Amino acid sequence: MDTDLDTLATALYVKIDDVLKDHPGLAPARPVVGIEPLLSDAELATVAVLQALLGFTSETRWLRYARQQLVHLFPYLPHQSGYNRRLRAASGLLQALIRVLAVDTRGWHDDTWIIDSTPVECGRSRPTARRSDLAGWAGYGYCASHSRYFWGLRLHLVCTPGGLPITYALAHPKLDERDVARDMLDTDPALLRSRVGQTLIADKGYASREFESFLTDHGVRLLRPTFKR
Q1: Which residues neighbour 7 within 8 Å (Cβ) at sequence distance 6 or greater?
Q2: Is 35 helix (H, G, I), strand (E, B) or coil?
Q3: Angle (nearest 5°) at CA 190 between 117 and 154
Q4: φ, ψ of residue 4 in degrees (nearest 5)
Q5: Of 188, 151, 190, 167, residue with least CA distance to 116
Q6: pLDDT tens digit sequence for 40-85
Q7: Among 45, 137, 147, 157, which residue has the fewest nearby CB atoms (within 10 Å)?
Q8: What's the topology of domain 107-223?
Q9: Do residues 198 and 219 make contact, with C-beta atoms less than 8 angstroms apart?
């Protein structure tokens, strides 16, 4: 297990380091004159990807585990507060790496996608909705599967049947699912480039002549239940 983890960590680091060498603009902005961080951007991103792959949701527990199992690969690891601060500053880099690593998998070339949305509840009390930093961005929406209203956002996700995320968006819960889906696919032309014959599986909420025409124009076939029964 340790050997497999070392191999995975090394492969990830080499891949991420090559990406940063080819695209140095992805790295977080840093003053020309200053102290060089003990943990490089490539090492930070590698540690973050390993945390996600190994299923650690707690940064404190992950860093404790990493100090025990990966100390020979990463002699220096910051404390939780410093690690979190570095991750926030590197959010753009991490988002770009998600796409780079996903494209390298077999699932990326799957000719079938699934699209759906789910509520992301951010608060329940009215005072929370007023004082939250999400006020003005989040809102009230209705979740049909749970037959209740919620305050928050709605996560829109396109993924493969194997579970590989292709693209996603967090949007106001009252926005039409079809409009959000069209924007997700329209703002990233590379997704549908050379995708003739792609099938998109959706539920009845995505039924619309305009949406189906948009997909047809891009060579995508929409597969959804009929309204009968």
Answers
A1: none
A2: coil
A3: 15
A4: -65, -40
A5: 167
A6: 999 999 999 999 999 999 999 999 999 999 999 999 999 999 999 9
A7: 147
A8: Nucleotidyltransferase; domain 5 (3.30.420)
A9: yes
